[in-house]
Specification:
Helix content is about 30%, strand content about 30%. The chain has a single domain, classed as 6-pyruvoyl tetrahydropterin synthase/QueD (Tetrahydropterin Synthase, Chain A), CATH 3.30.479.10. By secondary structure, the protein is of the alpha+beta class. The longest helix has 16 residues. The chain is elongated, with a radius of gyration of 17 Å. It has a 5-stranded mixed β-sheet. Bound molecules: nickel (II) ion (NI). Nickel (II) ion binds next to strand 2.
């Protein structure tokens, strides 16, 4: 069987956000999000770690063209979100709370389509929000909630 190698690369972007649900009262928002509901927002130095997987190319000995992966992630994600206020991005401006859970879901959706062009699969997207908090999306995992 052909060995499949996983390759991970990290990208950095700084952005601010405010956790707020428009349909909830000020009190409910504060009770739900605490300081993260501060009207002025707050910033994070996000680290996006992208993991791709595929067979090793016989000619190059590599699983992916790293320069091509960089240009794709930089163009689609870093340049779009770095030094921005996430709440003002069309992705979040309407009704989607720019929590890092939702952020990593949107980023994975955007990248999943484009990495196909490199002949590989995206098998994990991780967004680190702080040194304590990180959010992983494993696309092959079931998307539905498990009911016990
Ligand atoms: Ni935050």
């Amino acid at each position: 069987m052909t060995p499949i190698v996983h390759f991970s690369r990290r990208y950095r972007l700084s952005a601010s956000h405010r956790l707020h649900v428009g349909t909830m009262s000020e009190e409910e928002n504060y009770a739900t999000f605490g300081k993260c509901n501060n009207p002025f927002g707050h910033g994070h130095n996000y680290v996006l770690e992208v993991t791709v997987a595929g067979p090793v190319d016989a000619a190059t000995g590599m699983v992916v063209d790293m320069v091509a992966l960089d240009s794709l992630v930089n163009a689609q994600i870093v340049e779009r979100f770095d030094q921005t206020h996430l709440n003002m991005d069309p992705l979040f401006a309407e009704a989607l709370v720019p929590s890092t859970e939702n952020f990593v879901i949107e980023v994975e959706k955007m990248l999943q389509k484009s990495v196909c062009a490199l002949g590989i699969r995206l098998v994990r997207a991780r967004m680190e929000e702080t040194s304590n908090n990180s959010f992983d999306l494993l696309p092959q995992e079931p998307r539905e909630r498990v009911v016990f």
